[in-house]
Amino acid sequence: MPAPVRERLAVVLIGHGSPATDCPPQWVGELMSLEWRAGQKPGGHGHHLDGSGRAAELDAKIRDWPRTGANDPYKTGLERLAEALRPLLPTDLFVVGYNEFCRPSVSEAIGDVVRRGATRVLVLPSMLTPGGVHSEVDIPQALAAARRTHPQVGIDYLWPFEVGQVAELLARHISQAPAGRPDAVTAPGARSSRVR
Questions:
Q1: Any idea which architecture 9-20+71-175 has in CATH?
Q2: What is the pLDDT of residues 159-190, one digit of tens each?
Q3: In 3-state terms, what secondary structure has residue 180?
Q4: Chain-wide mean pLDDT for the chain?
């Protein structure tokens, strides 16, 4: 009788992704146009690429564009969040993935943890509010494909967030606002986004 397989848990944090600021904007515009047109076909959706053709070529070029903190502050910010989350997780098998514009993609991130021995993957989006196409359509489509590729692995999507918990998080942040200051509250090391 074979020994029972011990569960090896992994967590994949999924961010939206953003094109690098120095990536050619015409690539991004063309990709978004192609995705939009693909989404207009019956049963189609814009961010679901078949892996071939011009859209897939542009997607790869944009995702592969070299990243730095200066040309991709979103990626840098999500990696900071990941580093703060890492010690709070019940596993050391943890990676970040991106819905679009950056590597690793959702499928690449899941493939990475599976190759490293994961038997169960918890997928956590960084998008907090319901109603977004990325968290409600794009990521589930990517996870359906990952489940077909890795049928031996349990892949759980930890979505949606309970709205009351998100509201409590935001209320705690509001409660930290200094009294009598009209300018925006910023976290240590963060830039204010106040428009003057």
A1: 3-Layer(aba) Sandwich (3.40)
A2: 999 999 999 999 999 999 988 766 655 555 55
A3: coil
A4: 89
54 residue type, one letter: R
- Residue 118 and residue 10 in contact, taking contact as beta carbons nearer than 8 Å: yes
| Token output for 121 | 């993957």
pLDDT for the residue 118 = 98
CA dist., res. 53 & res. 72, Å (int)? 26
Work out the average pLDDT over 23-52. 77
Strands 120-125 and 94-98: what pairing?
Answer: unpaired
Neighbours of 105 (CB within 10 A): 21
CB 142 within 8 A of CB 106: yes
Distance CA 65, CA 72 (A): 10
Give SS3 for 56.
helix
φ, ψ of residue 12 in degrees (nearest 5): -120, 115
CB atoms within 10 A of CB 127: 19
The residue extents of the domains of the chain are 9-20+71-175, 24-64
d(Cα 196, Cα 184) in Å, to the nearest integer? 11
Q: Per-residue confidence at 39, pLDDT binned at 50, 70, 90?
A: confident
User: What does DSSP say about strands 154-157 and 120-125: parallel, antiparallel, or unpaired?
Assistant: parallel
